[in-house]
């Protein structure tokens, strides 16, 4: 089964605006031409870009420094569960290194 369209969530309103507006602007002239393919695939409706609030963006745990609470929220958003304290302390789960 082939997916017809991919939904991409983005918390940057500027990035969303740039993906929809091909007009040249002096503040965007630094963007390399090889990244302009995104506009084309959005126009062809292969990708659908959607705004996501930064509080609800699970990608933040991999791209930003976040608090423990935010890390746990992001993990829950993608279906991860934190292991209980001490549950990974068995000898098999502990990596040993020697220099």
From TrEMBL:
CDD domains: RNase_HI_RT_Ty1. This is Retrovirus-related Pol polyprotein from transposon TNT 1-94. It comes from the Eukaryota. The lineage of its organism: Eukaryota, Viridiplantae, Streptophyta, Embryophyta, Tracheophyta. It comes from Striga hermonthica (Purple witchweed).
